[in-house]
Please model this.
Amino acid sequence: MNARTIVVFMLIALGLNSSPRGSAATDSLDGLVAQVRSMKAQGKTRGEIAAFVTRSVDERIVSLNQSGRDERGGMHSAVYKQKKGMFDAWSKTGIGVDEPWSSAHWTWINRVGHCQENAHMAYHVLMMDFGSGAVIRELTCGDHVYVVLGVPPEVPGEVSIADLNRWPDAWLIDPWQGVCKPGREMGLRDWHMTQGGIKVMTLAAPWSYRVYKSKYAKWLQDAAALCGEWGDAGDRLVVTAVSGDASIRVGQVMSVRPAGVFKVTRKDSGGVRLDFRAAAIEGAAAGDTAWLNKSLAGNLVSAGLTRIVVNGKDHLQVTLVTSGAGFSFTREGLLTRSR
Model:
């Protein structure tokens, strides 16, 4: 394995799968929700909570805008290409990509996104903690999206900088930029957030907590859609991306014969198990996405599963990270059912 390959996989195995510096000490989105809930119970101020959520989301998600500001200084080009391909496939064909709960879970697992994914994750965490969508809204201006915590009741759908300046104890949360500030400090210099006053600033329609929690709970139950009826002998797992020291090539069709050699199983605990050839791995599932990192057999160290729709048919987007003595590689593929 050459030095360049080693660097790439240090980035993949360490930089993208370990907990980022200074972020919330949790390996799950639910863990972050619990931390914010604890802060609220301890009487932390709205500003303290806003700053914590901004920092935690910012440090979890690597921006796909390579020219943009990012505390990691961007990704290695090979990792960026692979992750961007995963994001593009999910954003075009994934299930519920514009819903905050679905986006938050996919982005937590895959750790890449644009401003909308940053905003959706922050919004979801706050929504689950504050229990009222009335004070938490997403705000769009041009093509930029961020979150406002502390929206007064009965505000209009379109707001101005002056409105934000007048709102008491309102906090602007923009993890994509790494910015958290009180509304009173918003100004024309906040270009991404205000477009210099040229574009309309629009608040997303509020969710009630009851409706949001109901829709989220139903989505969580849909993890069963990831399981069963995958891995028939005629199914095709087509490789769409490869990184590392592997003889596998893009476009290669990986054999899923005999039937059952590729099997996804729902566990009683709500998680998911993947068996692929001689390897087995399990982990957590949420809706149409699963992240597996508990190796049971073989040399799979992590795996990702996302149900997507292509041309009206269900497919399973699969990411497998394999590591062993003297080798390490990542492959991404699209599993198509034979029927």
Q: What stands out?
A: The longest helix spans residues 77-93. Confidence is low (pLDDT under 50) at residues 1-23. The longest strand covers residues 313-324. The chain is about 30% helix and 30% strand.
